Amino acid sequence: MKKTLCLILTLVMLSSLCAFGALADDVTLNAIFMKQAGYSEDDVLAMTQAFTEATGIQVNPTFVAYEELAPKILTSAASGGYDVILGDCIWPAQFAKAGLVLDVTDRVSALDLDDIYQGALDATRYEGKYYGMPWLNDVKYMFVNMELLKQAGIEEAPATWDQLIEDAKACKEKGICEYPIVGCYAQAECLICDYTCIAGSFGGAFVDENNQPTLDKAENIEALDFMAQTLKDGLCNPKSLEMIEDDVLSTFAAGNAVFAINWTYQYASMNDESQSSVVGQGVITPIPGTDKAQSATVNGGMPLMITAGCKHPDEAWEYMLFLASKEMQAKYCANALPIWKSLYTDPQVIETAGAEVVAASQIQFDFIQNRPMVPYYNELSTAMQTEIQLVLLGQKTAEEALTGLQAVALELADR
Predict the structure, then answer these.
(1) Cβ neighbours of residue 355 under 8 Å, at least 6 residues apart?
(2) Alpha helices (runs of H) in 174-217, residue ranges in sequence order
(3) Of 48, 58, 123, 197, whose CB is crowded by the most CB atoms within 10 A?
(4) Burial class (CB in 10 A: 0-12, 13-18, 19+), 112
């Protein structure tokens, strides 16, 4: 404990001295985080307490559900209610264009960028500049209940979607699980995340290399047809249309699903006896692929950003740097993996995160798909959520919905 605190204190002391010039002024920072997925509230509170003990800087953290995070940030922007904000990787473009967050390119460029995963860096960047400190490094994986799968006579997790469908049919036909597949298909951002994974594994993408919309690509249509068919065939739980990530976790943890796509945090929760009845039964694996792509996942990276109204940007940066330090990320990696490549051979990380999680991530990180990193993303996502749900409900065809969405995206891009 003393050694860890010494390392932390050394990190802070080696930072820019001007960050501590105002310590005597009793600096207090306000920060906002999300409740679900990634670092737990207890983790963030512990990190924050360690920061205050090491620096004397007070921090008041607020925790809200993901769906409330952007609205809270936007409504408080005028008053400067928060100094440090946690943002999704699809927000820096919007926030930067609106002048809501500070350009921290010089600060980020001083870091050892070669040791940071590209997906984590991408979560902070817009038009070649950095607007935040990489922090929450996360992607989605496939979780498989191997105990249920073995009851169907299947010994290996599927590597392709075709194989997964065959396995799901076997489990259903043998009465092992009524709805073998569960998804985050509520009319919320989680639906776009799941669709990004599946579309990418079918060879699809929502924008091209120039960030121009490509929503009506044949591969995207095929992927959405696939999702709708699993519901129509009774392989996917119909309640998925109302589920967010925590609902998927609880369904899987109750033994009511064989296959689930979710963030890293599901691994620890499904193996926690206080939360799960399937401890030791589930495995974490890369998301299946097709003949067009071996796998695909969605970038869930979330950077910490300094608001434009922050009166103490140096202290805010020190707080962000502290939370993202190797010491903190190695210690609190049970639910969120580090941004630092060098930590993936660290015995503490392997033990805390789990060797299985580390092994899966080293494969899955090679197949990261970004949601469109454009200033109009929020409007596009809202439109996509509505139209995709109509397809999953059987009220529109995938081609109709995506053709219409392409027109919407082009109009938003031309504004």
Answers:
(1) none
(2) 189-201
(3) 123
(4) exposed
- Asked if the model's pLDDT at residue 174 lies above 50, the reply is yes
pLDDT, mean of residues 246-253: 97
Counting Cα atoms < 13 Å in the Cβ hemisphere of 202 gives 22
Of the pLDDT bands very low, low, confident and very high (cuts 50, 70, 90), residue 78 is: low
Between CA 385 and CA 196 the distance in angstroms is 12
Tell me the sheet residues that pair with 85.
Answer: 32, 305
The identity of residue 345, as a single letter, is T
CATH numbers and ranges of domains, the chain: 2-138+300-369 (3.40.190.10), 140-298+376-413 (3.40.190.10)
Amino acid in the structure at residue 307:
T
Rounded mean pLDDT, 167-180: 98
CB 46 within 8 A of CB 1: no
Whether the predicted pLDDT of 261 surpasses 50: yes
Mean pLDDT value of segment 18-26: 47
Asked if the model's pLDDT at residue 407 lies above 60, the reply is yes
Q: Distance between CA 319 and CA 12 in Å, rounded?
A: 9
Strands 133-136 and 302-306: antiparallel
**pLDDT of 36:** 65
Q: Which helix (H) or strand (E) holds 177?
A: none
Tell which residue, 388, 303, 264, has the closest CA to residue 90.
Answer: 303
Report yes or no: 74 and 94 within 8 Å, Cβ to Cβ.
no
Four-CA torsion 146, 149, 151, 153, nearest 10 degrees: -120
User: Residue 183 is which amino acid?
Assistant: G
